[in-house]
Design brief:
The chain is mostly helical and about 100 residues long. It is about 100% helix and about 0% strand. The chain folds into two domains: about 1-70; about 75-105. Keywords: Receptor.
């Protein structure tokens, strides 16, 4: 009976030691998972920050393109108006010169 009790105590001790070991493994695994979650959260935050930065850069580029496009359109309009003025300038000068000649006579 004593031998049986000693065996049961050893078995119980062995099971307790095994349970402590398993508990330590589980705690370690939980800590690893928590660390991975923290890393994943930080990575997500970094990505969100990058998206915000690149969104702002893209908006700035779009604004610049819009301004440049407007400037190009304005330049084309000015050139077109200059061409029109030049088209009428020659005949108007001849007309004015002709009127001056008539006034002199």
């Amino acid at each position: 009976l004593q031998q049986k009790m000693k065996e049961m105590e050893r078995c119980n001790m062995s099971q307790q030691e095994e349970a402590r070991s398993e508990k330590a493994k589980l705690k370690k695994r939980i800590q690893e998972l928590e660390n991975r979650q923290l890393e994943a959260d930080q990575y997500r935050i970094d990505l969100e920050d990058d998206v915000k930065v690149y969104r702002a850069l893209l908006q700035n580029l779009e604004d610049k393109v819009g301004r440049i496009s407007k400037e190009a359109v304005t330049r084309r309009r000015v050139e077109m108006l200059n061409e029109r003025v030049e088209t009428y300038l020659g005949p108007l000068e001849r007309l004015l010169n002709g009127l001056r000649q008539v006034d002199k006579e």
